[in-house]
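re: ur question from yesterday

yeah so i grabbed the chain u mentioned. its 383 aa long if i counted rite. heres the sequnce exactly as i have it in my notes:
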Amino acid sequence: MTAKPKNETGGADKAVHLVYGEDEYLVSTNAKELVDRLCPKADQAFGLEIVDARVGLVDEAIAAIGRCLDGLRTLGFLGGRKVVWLRDATFLGSGVIGESADVKGRLDELVKLIKAGLPPGQILVVSASKVDGRSAFFKACQSAGSVTKFELPDKSYQLEQQARGMASDAFRKAGLNIGPDALGEFLEKTGTDTRQIVQEVEKLSVYLGDRKNVQVADVHAIVSPSREAISWDLADAVGSRDLTRALKVLRQLLFQGENEVGLIIGLEGRFRDLLLYREALDRRWLSVGGEEPWLKVEWRQSPEVDEFASSLAKDPRTVNIYRAGKLVAQARRFSRQELVRCQALTLAAHESIISSTYAKELNLEFLLMKLLGAPRQASAKSA
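ran it thru and got these structure tokens back, copy pasting raw so excuse formatting
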């Protein structure tokens, strides 16, 4: 899968190439594609030297830089082109290892070599997650070569939009057709991590065989939820007022070692969202169509809605249409009074878990039964 970097300087004819950024998958795949272009696979036995720079100690970082320098100072086989790949460097940011005087000293040698110009036929490729943009190393790469950055958007809705684009592109390249409902369910499970998105598309492609249309049932059958998505499963079960499923998911999460306080915080967030959508439903700010679970939600245009949305930390109108439909469907299962009660119960359970010596897992089970086990009041679904 290809993607445009956030910024790029220089070109492929340069002797130094720095590829970095927070999106680990795009950094690694684009660095590998660059290396393959600079040194075709047929020539890599003698023309490529890979230096593993994913290190955890100062001595390991010094050794990696040393191997990189040795590689650049050694001529290629029969005087041909040679590519040295300093791969997955973890000491180019502002962390403890990168701040070590010994590491800086060794890195200064590499900077001097870059500034002086690499020996003829030698090419350096560096891939990393973090690089200090103020460092002499970064500036040397920027001046003498090409710099490509793959970063993640700052805002959550932008990250979701990027993930949707990545997933759509991955399905297209795999020759698969997926509708908005199945794509929404897919992203609910994978989250926004690019590597997981690509891997799960590949799994679906194998699972479907000759079939090319991806259904929601296929996503449920084969796509593995991310760690974040698993915790959302608990909130979804509670939002759907499904006590049996909520208890099952809770026990699975606790078995996996999930933090009890983190699960409580997830439920608090869900009830905040449901109160928001309950308010919007009660005020007739939402146009809701379709049938559950695939509701189609559209916010009405009005100064009152604009004022309400602008007062929130995140504008609910930017939530992807699938997720908004799911939250509206859940909000319709509760009255405002019920949601206020649920929120109070969850906050009390949070305080109890922190301050009490009572078994945390039992506290959570009791909370779910208090939230979902009591007889329902008058239904709010008619909204």
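noticed a couple things. The beta strands are 7-9, 16-20, 48-52, 82-89, 122-128, 146-149, 177-178, 213-214, 286-289, 296-299. also Residues 91 and 98 are 4 Å apart (CA to CA).
anyway ttyl
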